[in-house]
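Q: Convert this sequence to structure tokens.
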Amino acid sequence: MPPIDPGAVAIEEWRPGVKTRMVTSARNGAAALCIFEQWVAPGAGAPTHSHPVEEVLTVREGTAQIWLDAQHMTVTAGQSLIVPAHRKHGFRNVGAGTLYVHAVLASPIFEATPDGAAAPTRRWEA
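A:
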């Protein structure tokens, strides 16, 4: 399999204030995970949602308020959080600058169910 150049992968506007680059997924040959990066404007983030698989969120730059069920925590550059499968979670940028987050999901297809939704959203399928 050829090496992956993240700089060659398009950055998408996922929602207002959130840009996402899917580095690895089923689209480029992954069989068991997806890895993506997000750049989040102050005040923006991800609404409450869940995944059917485990996720690891790592803050590379900035400060995030992350919630996991009813627990809220501040996560800063260099810190990671493991989100167990099926747990409701979300985050927002509480800093003054851009929040840079690196995420890994234990599935090659990104699947998330927004809080209150009847069906999941699927992205970056093969």
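The first strand starts at residue 12 and ends at 15.
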